[in-house]
Amino acid sequence: MKRIISVLLIAIFSFMAFAQNGHPNNNLVTRIVTKTEGSSVQINIFFSEAVNPRTLGPQSILINGNPINNNTKFMYNREGTQVRFYVELNGSFSLKLIHLMTNSGKEISTGTIPLNGDTVWPRNES
User: Is the peptide bond before 53 cis (omega within 30 degrees of 0)?
Assistant: First the structure.
């Protein structure tokens, strides 16, 4: 009986450890600020940890469900916790991050986030 309980406990703890490491961390995106500039929108994404720049690109950022332009230039702050880029857009749009990685190996993926040309997300509910 003790062996069965021990095996079950090991299995449960192992599952919990793997589930935490393999599950996307939505809370790593702390804020998104957008600003309209002519026919473009400046998008600033803030992270709670430094992002691995090798994982950030058109394949990891979807606007209205489509990857962003391959020629998009990214600007980072010194710590790597903020990225800024411009996209050609007018009006409302949605943003989704997929399979982005932090320098510590955590995956960043978000659900679809509705935005427009001048947005601060998440909105303060106070």
Answer: no
By the 8 A CB rule, do 46 and 83 touch?
no
Query: Where would I find the H helices in the chain?
Result: 2-22
Output 31 or 25, whichever has higher pLDDT.
31
Residues composing the chain: 126
16 confidence band (pLDDT: 50, 70, 90): very low
Confidence band for 7, pLDDT divided at 50, 70 and 90: low
CA torsion angle for 73, 76, 80, 81 (degrees, to 10)? -100
Helices vs. strands in the chain: H and E counts, helices first: 1, 11
Q: Which two tokens stand for residue 15?
A: 């599952």
Phi-psi region of 80 (alpha: psi -120 to 50; beta: other; left: phi over 0): left
